[in-house]
Amino acid sequence: MHPPPRRTLSRVAAVTATALALSSAVAVPANAADVLLSQGKPVVASTTESSSLGGDKAVDGVGTTRWASAVSADPQWLRVDLGQPSTVNRVKLTWEAAYAKKYRLEVSDDGVTFTTVATVDNGDGKTDDLSGLSGHGRYLRVVGTTRATKYGYSLWEVQAYGTADSTGDTQAPSTPTGLAAGTTTASSVALTWSPSTDNVGVTGYDVLRGGQVVATSATTSFNDTGLTADTDYAYAVRARDAAGNTSAVGTAVTARTKPGGGGSFVLAAAGDIADRCTASDSNCVHPKTAKLVEAINPAAVITMGDNQYDDAHLSDFRNYYDKTWGKFKGITHPVPGNHETYDDTPFKGYRDYFGPIATPQGKNYYSWEMGNWHFIALDSNDFTTHDFAEPAQVAWLKQDLAANTKGCVAAYYHHPRFSSGDHGDNPDSAALWQVLVDNKVDLVLNGHDHHYERFVPQNAAGRADANGPVQILGGMGGAPLYDVHAAHPTTAKLLQAFGVVKLSMTDTSFSTQLIGLDRAVLDSSPTYTCH
């Protein structure tokens, strides 16, 4: 919560020589050819106070929307991806009443290693117009180091001016045409449109729902999910290029979701989550993915193992996982990974922390239901021993599937059958996968390899087969990412990226999205009909 905004925000603060320390030995004047580089660009924030005060609000060009950090310890930061390497000569910051007394501006080529281009040590909460800068990089970061109030940090706008390395590209792409709504369900609308043209090249398309950008797609299609049944939605699309030029918004279309869908709901899922770090460390990821879960507002949360690193002691769960993803403990349906076995007594910290929700049927594996969906939570540590005797868990699984009366089935466990990541395929679980295929399971979720990978439906041999399950590897919940290798023939999407999988379920279908740290949709599946 922040105090009401000041009425003097439009007044520009004079930044004195003592307040502004340039990293360059020589300050260069602002260039008359400078353009606004930051508006509408992807943003990542260290924290956000709420989903309505996200970092994107600080670069949307609207003076009445803002980013607000959580009310927490210093430092806090906001990072803008300018889209390409650029020279930054001027940065204008419009502060809300919760402002920074001390802060710095940084630039980076890779978003990891930053160089300071300016520091301010006596901020007064007005509008700071910092010119004469000499920074070069793709990423600009505003780092608040000392708060002036008991609240967090809050910015109405961050405006970076300069020149992109692709100097002279001021031509916007052509306006997208041919927008059409295709398949609709009670909770999703599939959109397609014709490609735009550009003098250099189109890099993506903003999808607008009700006039607000809800996603950015690299292709000429998008599946909007998590919608309300029997409801009209207005869509439009605009194109953008690498220099930040955006086209006019194309002609809007209206689509209506199908009626019914009383069993529709949204879930959030990820594996390999809490490293031993906290939000005070700007490189700590699991607090950021927890914010994504909060924004998704799911009916339930699925975790695909390795919930806590490194040895999953109870103290680690309490010190790290509990402070972020622990907020959703009451609606979480977890499974263990290999790291849960590394405790002094295997699984002890995991079981002590989660309590009965980890073993609702007395074992590490169990099933639960929501709507017309039957969910099966498995302990895949049984399938990594190279002991090909059938585990008791398989006999239980067969009985559980035989007793199921729901129309749609999902299974989730830690070690994936197929993976293009560091660990690769797990042949020890071939018998498990065969059971899932034989019983027409619709969706399988895994972790273990620290990347994102979505497969097309495939059979027991790993070949594309519409009758097989869709496998999603979601090991990007917070632990450091792993390298990926050559994709499988059945891989639909392979990404080295942090995020959370959003699952939109109806009584007869499902669709999935990967939501990245900047809340952009990094992948969107088709809508699948349950077997």
UniProtKB/TrEMBL annotation:
Organism from which the protein derives: Umezawaea endophytica
Annotated SUPFAM superfamilies: Fibronectin type III (SSF49265), Galactose-binding domain-like (SSF49785), Metallo-dependent phosphatases (SSF56300)
Annotated F5/8 type C domain residues: 25-163
Top-level lineage group: Bacteria
Domain Fibronectin type-III: 172-260
Signal peptide annotation: 1-32
GO MF term (any one): hydrolase activity, acting on glycosyl bonds
Keywords attached to this entry: Carbohydrate metabolism, Glycosidase, Hydrolase, Polysaccharide degradation, Signal
Keyword Membrane: no
GO biological process: polysaccharide catabolic process
Name of the protein in question: Discoidin domain-containing protein
SMART domains: FN3
